[in-house]
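Holo prediction — zinc ion.
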Amino acid sequence: MTSIIETIKAKVDVVEEIGLVVALQKSGKSLKGLCPFHNERTPSFYVFGESQTWRCFGCNEGGDVFTFVQMQQSLEFREALLYLAEKAGVAVEDYSSHNRSPEEERESQAAKERLRKLNEDALLWFHQMLLRSKDAAEARAYVQSRGISSESVVTFSLGYAPDRREGLSSYLLGQGYTESELVSGGLARMRDGGIGDSGGTGIGSGIYDYFRHRLIFPIRDSRGRVIGFGGRAFGDAQPKYLNSPQTLLFEKNSVLYAMDMARDAIKQAKQVVIVEGYVDAVIAHQYGTKQTVACIGSAITEKHIQQLKKLTRQVTLALDPDAAGAAATEHGIQEVLKTFDRTIVPVPVATATTGAGGRKRNEPRGMIRLEEQVDAEINVLQLPPGQDPDEVIVQNFAVWAHAVAHPLPLVDYYFGTKTAGLNLREPTGKTEAAKRLLPIIGMISDRIKRDAYMRKLATMISTEERILYDELQRVLREQKTNGVVAEFSAPVGPQRSSKGAGGPFQAGSGKQGTQPIQQQIMSGEPGWISKAEGEKQRQPQAQGIGLDKRKSDKIQWEDYLIGLLLQNPGLNPHVCGIINDGDFAGTDTRELYHILNSVYQRGSSPSYEPLEQLVPSALLTTIARARQSVESRSPLDGAGQIKNAVQCATRLKRTRLVQLNIELQYVLREAESTGDVAVVQQLKHKLLENQKQLRTIDSATHLQG
Ligand SMILES: [Zn+2]
């Protein structure tokens, strides 16, 4: 049976789809163009029609048509699914699985539509109030005093909620909305007596305005639709900010103010600046720092970061300079660290010769230690003491612009905050400073950077670097024992001996170069892959680039791995250090892994039972297939599950690296034939890098125990 996803992929040609946004030129059996995901002058972005995949050899992004649409339009998988299904003329139910009947689904959609209309009408009323009402004189003066231009008032549709109990309510009731619609839409509150039956005249009704005497900032979703409002008090009235309550449309903890207007600028600037207040965001945009968003409510949440990390990896925090701001900054940093993907760098380590855990001495055994690096660049905006962002922007834009362009790296920020209040001339103060900062310095993987911070610390506390290095070693040893360790065990393949010095890994050695690596990868397939399947994998390469061979086998491994993770979510830490989403060849398995991984990382659910309710219905068959793949084999104990999961993950990783190797060889040959020396150099470098990674995995898998 063909899945909906496969049907869509069969109908939407990746070459055509990418061709809509990238000018592609033919290059042998593939096409190339300028990468839409990074800035470049010579094309390193390739589309392979044969395998319906694409890859950029400049920024290393790649995938299939789904990945491209998701990345290029910043869409979630299910949004990309709807978009591509429409193109392919394939009908997909969005989420069949919310246990709702089609009628209920339609009703809920209709309710949302009605609420959007209600919000639009409220926005117009607030906006007109600010522009024209006599009551809004104080509000207009306030807007002016904060330096907000009349253009910004219009661009952001700012409004005013007058100090009346039945201002907006009576207007909206007159427009035909009901009292309960106003209450559930977060625009009115019920009086003590509850909703009245005055028939919507507004006189003596049972509700009153939610926002009163506040400057109104309409909050829009990423598509620009009004979903709620933020109200700022004038002067020192409390609370300073009053936001819409949770409604059908408005989820406070996931929305970022001005996101709809900042999206493109964030991508372009490769940076997002997060401020605390609505006024800060409006002023930043007004003065041209359009990559600015404000968090609604005081805290930065994981959901905020989830949206941002699709656009950039540089997160600049520009929170208020008070104590609450400092706490919010620390909280924001932790959320970023938690939410951004981790790049895992495998480091092979020699293992003890004593066979641990009853392992037979003659069984090969290897260990890889995986060092985690958060794939985000976090920094903190440094502003003159005591000044909020909007004040700095209005009073001295050059200072602001410089701060945005040169934000303080996270480690430097910690040098300041972690040592605040310590007397660095006293021995106790020095010791304390080193104790607080060394673990942070230890997290830096770049040796040169790390050394620079060691010098900085040594100078700061007037201590010899040598002493600090001893201390750092101790800290690092502690971190390592707490780190992630993956264990591999695999039979040694007969092709081991063919891995001569340099030979098979020689860059640019053409087809011959790829063969031994593939054979190594084929050797030692997990026991659950039958002999026949193993044989099939050894079939010689057919004509063409040779990209999509053995696809069905890959998918089988992927199903099995997903099945294992569904059965035992606790396996996640054992595999997430080895693979990431991009290592999956199947569109469906890739998305399932992505969902499983993020659910696990969030720790939000100890069991994956409700997964069927989280995923688009198009993925339900894959879930069933994955469960079946595990259930059809004999049950495993915990150790067996870990072993198979790690083997699966390792094989997926290796298969992906081999795939990349084939692509690189192909593209390299193309470049050599056109005599583009710079590109050839770059590709050879990539090829060597790739082969080094392959060797690392190989040696880890084959290290003698
Ligand atoms: Zn690129």
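READOUT: Residues 256-342+374-410 form a domain with the Dna Topoisomerase Vi A Subunit; Chain: A, domain 2 fold (CATH 3.40.1360.10).
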